[in-house]
Amino acid sequence: MDFQFIKDSISSSPAFVLDAEEIINSLKVLNILRHQCGCKILYSIKSLPLSSVLDIAKPLVDGFSVSSLFEARLADEILAGQGGIHLTTPGLRPDEWDEMAPLLTHISFNSLTQYQRFAFKSRARASIGLRVNPKLSWVNDDRFDPCRQYSKLGVSIDELWQSSCLDQIKGLHIHNIFAATDFTPLIKTIDKLRGYFGKSLAQLDWLNLGGGYLFNVINDHSPFIDLVKKLKDDFKLEVYIEPGKAVVGNAGYLVSTVIDEFTSDGKRVAILDTSVNHNPEVFEYQRRPELHEQDSNGRYSAILAGCTCLAGDVFGEYRFTEPLQAGDRLVFKNVGAYSLIKANRFNGYNLPAIHVYKSAQIKKIRHYDYYDYRRQWVLDE
């Protein structure tokens, strides 16, 4: 990525830039895995449902994973029958079921009550499964831990083991990790699944290993390849994974401009024309996003703050080789996942324009204006 070219090419900020080539590179890593072990790849739409991403991913994946009616409709529109649509969600609505069910190829019901309510009156052509909570936590932050105490995500492995449901379903879905950079959690989770269900797993058609693994930053894929091959050999299972952040996380950039700078209690503060509301996980999880211009040995420091009146609209303190001035362009890196999809117009500040970078060219594909904001809030009679 040529950052100077990007900053020079953006006519106005804030701007979200999607690196199409980075997405393709990440998908190629996954495609190699697919050929090495026979797993199937689903892109998890929730990380970034932009149609440009879905169009890039479509020929390199086996389908999309979705969590709602709108995601299912979008997946169906893009795929046009050329891939699977897998659903799992705790929020399955009775009033949406008849519209959603025919769109799906696979459903992992989130609870036994959900399964009992919907599976037997299904209009679906889908292969029916259950999401299982393996009761193994690998995430220190409860906000990210699907296996936290009193979890809403999946059927307890003990409850499933005591039921007769395994004889009635076609697959299982597991997902108990976030942003993992090795496969230890997956290996231990599968060991526990084998310990509980043993040869009964051969009754199933498929096993969805979920997402949460950053395949593009894991150097040694051999443990994953061996695990998938053994599952296929021992139980004749179709094995799925559904990466999201691993596809788009490193492919998104947020370009911003310094619009004011001053001293507050002895520290320099730079106000940007973007805000944490354009990358809400910064505020939600108190993250300090990566900045291209950061120099850990730089002589000058500044607190980068957003332009809204929220006191906590702060990205963090960074160091620079030169003091920041109004008009300087800055680029936050690795914000492709769970940023644009969560972005909002708090205080009436506009959403970032969306650009795609490919073949050393940048193209604006979406711009928002006052009438988009007005449409959301003004009730014309």
TrEMBL record:
Any GO BP annotation: lysine biosynthetic process via diaminopimelate
UniProt entry keywords in alphabetical sequence: Cytoplasm, Decarboxylase, Lyase, Polyamine biosynthesis, Pyridoxal phosphate, Spermidine biosynthesis
The protein's name in its UniProt record: Carboxynorspermidine/carboxyspermidine decarboxylase
PANTHER family: CARBOXYNORSPERMIDINE_CARBOXYSPERMIDINE DECARBOXYLASE (PTHR43727:SF1), DIAMINOPIMELATE DECARBOXYLASE (PTHR43727)
Enzyme nomenclature, EC number: 4.1.1.96
Record-level Gene Ontology MF annotations: diaminopimelate decarboxylase activity
Family stated for the protein in its record: Belongs to the Orn/Lys/Arg decarboxylase class-II family. NspC subfamily.
Superkingdom of source: Bacteria
Assembly notes: Homodimer.
Organism whose genome encodes this protein: Candidatus Methylobacter favarea
Function of the molecule: Catalyzes the decarboxylation of carboxynorspermidine and carboxyspermidine.
Orn/DAP/Arg decarboxylase 2 C-terminal domain: residues covered: 151-336
Cofactor: pyridoxal 5'-phosphate
Keyword Cytoplasm applies: yes
Compartments (UniProt record): Cytoplasm
Principal place of residence: cytoplasm
Matching Gene3D superfamilies: Alanine racemase, Lyase, Ornithine Decarboxylase, Chain A, domain 1
Catalytic activity, reaction form: carboxynorspermidine + H(+) = norspermidine + CO2; carboxyspermidine + H(+) = spermidine + CO2
One GO cellular component, as annotated: cytoplasm
Alphabetical list of SUPFAM superfamilies matching this protein: Alanine racemase C-terminal domain-like, PLP-binding barrel
